[in-house]
């Protein structure tokens, strides 16, 4: 399972201008019900191929929660380089993307807003062999760390861990290894790898290779994947957005309460789904969805947003402070 959470820190100038002009014209995607129908058409860009990670959406669709909320929902799967930019251009009503992506987009004057955080914990970890000499983040100095590449959530997670350890990229040896973290760690080609908390550690355990993990959320709060829309859509169709969020959270609650049932439902959406592996992923993902249990499912935590902004500024991922109260809302969750 791989969450494709890809901060698009650099957009071509012409593309950015086009996006800004589009947003300024108020052409946010806000589909209305088709003639003769009471259902409003809604699409969400999920940013990756069909996968068990999207079980809350599949359950909400399968059990009719979206239709009961007056919505005709379409899932758009597929890896899109700039998911938020694609939404602003009108390809989707909403997207499933990270809070850091939303802040980067807003720093480029794209008017988007996070209306629900689904992953309450950032689902990325640094993974080391159980017998590794790396006992603390400070011990990373001088070691080789494997990452898929200098992009996405795993790379952002590495920057966050180094930031908290008061280390820089020059203090470690970062090696781009593609999505071969499991093989690379078992073969000791690297001293540590960055992976997803609900994926690579499970694979390594299944291969009989004992590991320890350093979860990014234990060190640096970051806003992970959630439901993002345009400010225009939120303002013009607040009930539509709220209905979608509420139906999705209802599906999320069902997945948490009955992961086995969610696996069965997901078989209709995910080709060649392996039920055993899917169940293991869901069991590892439930704590990530629930977070510390102190906030409601889907809730945007202000302290996490503030801490993330400080990190993004320190890393020069965004150029200047933002009014982060405009970057998210909990009106659709409560």
Task: Describe the overall structure.
By secondary structure, this protein is an alpha/beta fold. It folds into 2 domains: 13-121 and 222-326, 3-Layer(aba) Sandwich (D-Maltodextrin-Binding Protein, domain 2), CATH 3.40.190.10; 124-218, Periplasmic binding protein-like II (D-Maltodextrin-Binding Protein, domain 2, 3-Layer(aba) Sandwich). 38% of the residues lie in helices and 16% in strands. A 5-stranded mixed sheet has the order 2-1-3-10-4. It has a 5-stranded mixed sheet with strand order 7-6-8-5-9, with helices on both faces. Helix 2 (55-62) crosses helix 10 (238-257), helix 2 (55-62) crosses helix 11 and helix 10 (238-257) crosses helix 11 (259-266). The longest helix has 20 residues, at 238-257. The protein is globular. It starts with 12 loop residues before the first helix and ends in a 20-residue tail after the last helix. Mean pLDDT is 90; it is low at 4-36.
CATH architecture of the largest domain: 3-Layer(aba) Sandwich
Fold-level CATH name of the largest domain? D-Maltodextrin-Binding Protein, domain 2
Give the H and E element order. HEHHEHEHEEEHEHEHEEHHHHH
So, the CATH homologous superfamily of the largest domain?
Answer: Periplasmic binding protein-like II
Distance between the termini: 30 Å
Give the radius of gyration.
20 Å
Q: Approximately how much beta-strand content do the residues carry?
A: 15-25%
Low-confidence stretches: 4-36
């Amino acid at each position: 399972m791989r969450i494709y959470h890809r901060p698009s820190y650099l957009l071509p100038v012409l593309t950015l201008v086009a996006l800004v002009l589009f947003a300024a014209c108020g052409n946010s995607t806000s589909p209305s019900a088709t003639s003769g129908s009471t259902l409003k058409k809604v699409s969400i860009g999920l940013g990756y191929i069909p996968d068990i990670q999207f079980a809350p959406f599949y359950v909400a669709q399968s059990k009719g929660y979206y239709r009961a909320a007056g919505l005709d929902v379409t899932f758009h799967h597929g890896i899109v380089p700039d998911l938020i930019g694609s939404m602003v251009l009108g390809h989707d009503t909403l997207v499933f993307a990270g809070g850091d992506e939303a802040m980067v987009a807003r720093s480029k004057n794209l008017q988007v807003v996070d209306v629900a955080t689904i992953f309450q914990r950032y689902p990325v970890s640094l993974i080391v062999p159980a017998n590794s000499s790396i006992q603390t983040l400070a011990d990373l100095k001088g070691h080789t760390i494997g990452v898929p590449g200098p992009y996405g959530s795993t790379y952002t997670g590495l920057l966050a861990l180094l930031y908290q350890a008061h280390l820089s990229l020059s203090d470690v040896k970062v090696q781009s290894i593609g999505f071969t973290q499991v093989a690379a760690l078992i073969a000791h080609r690297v001293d540590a790898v960055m992976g997803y908390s609900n994926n690579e550690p499970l694979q390594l355990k299944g291969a009989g290779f004992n590991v320890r993990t350093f979860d990014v959320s234990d060190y640096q709060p970051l806003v992970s994947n959630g439901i993002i829309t345009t400010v225009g859509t939120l303002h013009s169709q607040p009930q539509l957005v709220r209905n979608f969020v509420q139906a999705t959270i209802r599906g999320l609650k069902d997945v948490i309460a009955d992961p086995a049932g969610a696996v069965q439902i997901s078989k209709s959406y995910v080709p060649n789904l392996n039920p055993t592996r899917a169940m293991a992923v869901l069991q590892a993902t439930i704590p990530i969805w629930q977070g510390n249990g102190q906030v409601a499912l889907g809730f945007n935590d202000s302290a996490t947003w503030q801490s993330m902004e400080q990190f993004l500024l320190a890393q020069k991922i965004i150029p200047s402070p933002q009014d982060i109260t405009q970057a998210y809302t909990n009106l659709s969750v409560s």
